[in-house]
Design goal:
Number of domains of chain B: 2
Largest sheet of chain A: none
Helix content of chain B: 25-40%
Distance between the termini of chain A: 30 Å
Strand content of chain B: 25-35%
Shape of chain A: globular
CATH topology of the largest domain in chain B: Rossmann fold
Strand content of chain A: under 5%
Order of helices and strands of chain B: EEEHEEHEHHHEHEHEEHEEEHEH
Largest interface: A-B, 26 and 32 residues
Radius of gyration of chain A: 18 Å
Oligomer: heterodimer
Largest sheet of chain B: 6 strands, mixed
Radius of gyration of chain B: 23 Å
CATH superfamily of the largest domain in chain B: P-loop containing nucleotide triphosphate hydrolases
Strand order of the largest sheet of chain B: 6-7-8-3-9-10
Chain lengths: 248, 306
């Protein structure tokens, strides 16, 4: 009974988030327009080999979309006064967190699927290992949706503050994760930093799935993404509980 | 078994003790008022009782279920109307109700039936497809209450439910509370409106600075301060309050065109007022001898501590 109530809480929370937050301006701006502008800024008008850069672009699209919903929800609900009502329903903080993660992951999954479809139709992109690619997408969306929810942990009253904070954290990651500069070309401090970025392992997994080449063994990528997901969820749970009363 | 049992509840925020070792019971089917000045700890208490906040110490049981140990099951028993209302303005009226019902696991057909019934009861059926952002404050509060009672809770918590509402919405909400109570629900009502508490509640608890200062039936609390009777009088012209100064009149307050003379001897006061009115040629428009009010008891109980 407890499991079914928990699962129901997660699904209903995700459904609520999808209805309310997918079309909010910060999600569209930070989740859709930013990666698109980054794509135009770095790839358009340059003679680049799409097969080399597509894994990075796909990872960037997934990263931005999946992590754009989570930071918005809790601050928005606290500001609107709905968070207390939500907590009074038969749910726990962890249920709410997982509902937020699910909504973020689905958003990432939908947009990444659109990008993949466009790539299949209009670009000459090879699919070396489709199952591995699917696995990378699922793991990546969950990992970065968790990252997004983790970014909502600090106690702020205004959603705009958390969106700025999340951009401050998210943007540097795309420069150290092998998106614009392949991992094999990174060295020194750049290479060390790239090991600490969860995005690195997603880009690497996409490389393995699309081109058949990767810097790390696939098992390492999978393990790293799972580990980062667990860490993000633990941090989110701890800090959401700690900051629960702030801004209610 | 009481519907709500609170034992040694305590909550601190930093160095501030918001709720300080409070204990009380609310019987099944009782309408219980929870009063206190701003910052007294009312909202924190309600959040602790409803499982929104976790207490630093103490226990809360709802219908015999420990809120800390079995929070989800306890929450299934209750409906909560938070102070801020807490409805999703981006959703329609019906979507808000359906969302609430889904959290409580109502089957689809029952949810459809119940949400339409509540929308009709609250006079919002015609607006069921409109986003709540287009609603007035009173309409939003009606949606908030409908969300809280969609599953017919055994215990209903209301935090300032009629604050700042129009007369029509306030009456509708009070009627709903009374109806829920008549059907057997236990009501825990936090309000600033002392007269509302006096009229509705079987018992009231007065809290100040996180501590319970009184808990009893409203009439008994009123009687605690029987030296605070008053005579309310209105003349056909304005009269200075100090005109009635006497050893048995402790204070004179002005309320619009009326004067209220606080006294411990209404008989002598009335005779004194009539004599003075005759002497000065004042025509008495109205005169009422008032017993001690719950408001006075509230002010005395909470004021003494401040």
């Amino acid at each position: 009974m407890k499991e079914s109530v928990f699962l129901r809480g997660v699904i209903v929370t995700a459904e609520k988030n999808i209805r309310i937050y997918y079309n909010k301006a910060p999600v569209i701006i930070f989740g859709l327009l930013f990666p698109l502008f980054m794509f135009f800024a770095f790839y358009m008008g340059r003679k680049i080999d799409m097969s080399v850069f597509f894994p990075g672009f796909l990872a960037m699209a997934l990263f931005f979309t999946a992590s754009s919903v989570g930071p918005l929800i809790t601050p928005w609900e606290k500001q609107a006064g709905t968070y207390e009502r939500l907590l009074s329903y038969p749910v726990s903080v962890n249920t709410i967190i997982l509902g937020d993660v699910l909504a973020g992951a689905l958003f990432g999954l939908i947009i990444t699927s659109v990008v993949m479809t466009v790539a299949v139709l209009f670009l000459e992109v090879a699919f070396n290992a489709p199952i591995l690619l699917g696995m990378a997408i699922v793991l990546g969306t969950i990992c970065f949706a968790s990252f997004g929810v983790c970014l909502a942990s600090p106690s702020v009253r205004s959603p705009s503050h958390i969106m700025m904070f999340s951009s401050l954290i998210r943007f540097p990651l795309i420069f150290i994760s092998g998106i614009f500069i392949p991992l094999t070309e990174l060295e020194g401090i750049g290479l060390i930093l790239s090991y600490m970025s969860p995005l690195t392992y997603l880009v690497d997994m996409f490389n393995a799935g699309l081109t058949g080449t990767s810097a790390f063994p696939v098992a390492v990528d999978i393990l790293a993404l799972m580990l980062f997901t667990a860490v993000f969820l633990l941090i989110a749970s701890k800090f959401h509980k700690r900051n629960l009363a702030k801004g209610l | 078994m009481p519907a709500i049992k609170v034992e040694g509840l305590r909550k601190k925020f930093g160095n501030v003790v918001a709720v300080d070792n409070i204990s009380f019971d609310v019987e099944k089917g009782e309408m219980f008022g929870f009063l206190g000045p701003n910052g007294a700890g009312k909202t924190t208490t309600i959040r602790l009782l409803t499982g929104v906040l976790i207490p630093d110490a103490g226990n809360v049981t709802i219908e015999g279920i420990d809120v800390r140990k079995d929070m989800i099951r306890a929450k299934m028993m209750m409906g909560v109307i938070p102070e801020m209302g807490g409805v999703y303005v981006d959703l329609t009226a019906k979507q808000n109700l359906v969302l609430a019902g889904k959290y409580y696991g109502l089957p689809k057909s029952a949810l459809e039936e119940r949400s339409e019934e509540l929308l009709s009861t609250f006079g919002l059926y015609d607006r069921r497809k409109d986003p709540v952002r287009t609603f007035s404050k009173g309409m939003k509060q009606r949606i908030s209450i409908a969300c809280a009672i969609i599953h017919n809770p055994q215990v209903l918590f209301l935090d300032e439910p009629t604050e700042g509402l129009d007369v029509q919405s306030r009456r509708l909400i009070i009627d709903t509370i009374i109806e829920m109570n008549e059907k057997g629900s236990t009501i825990f009502l936090t309000t600033h409106n002392i007269e509302e508490a006096n009229r509705l509640c079987e018992r009231v608890c007065i809290i100040n600075k996180g501590r319970i200062v009184a808990i009893d039936r409203p009439e008994i609390l009123r009687g605690t301060f029987d030296n605070t009777q008053s005579v309310e009088i209105s003349f056909d012209q304005s009269v200075e309050g100090h005109l009635f100064d006497a050893e048995f009149i402790s204070k004179v307050d002005r309320f619009g065109d009326k004067l209220r003379l606080y006294t411990n001897d209404p008989d002598r006061s009335v005779k004194h007022i009539v004599a003075l009115a005759n002497e000065r040629g004042l025509r008495i428009v109205s005169m009422t001898v008032c017993g001690p009010s719950l408001e006075e008891a509230f002010v005395r109980l909470t004021g003494d501590e401040q």
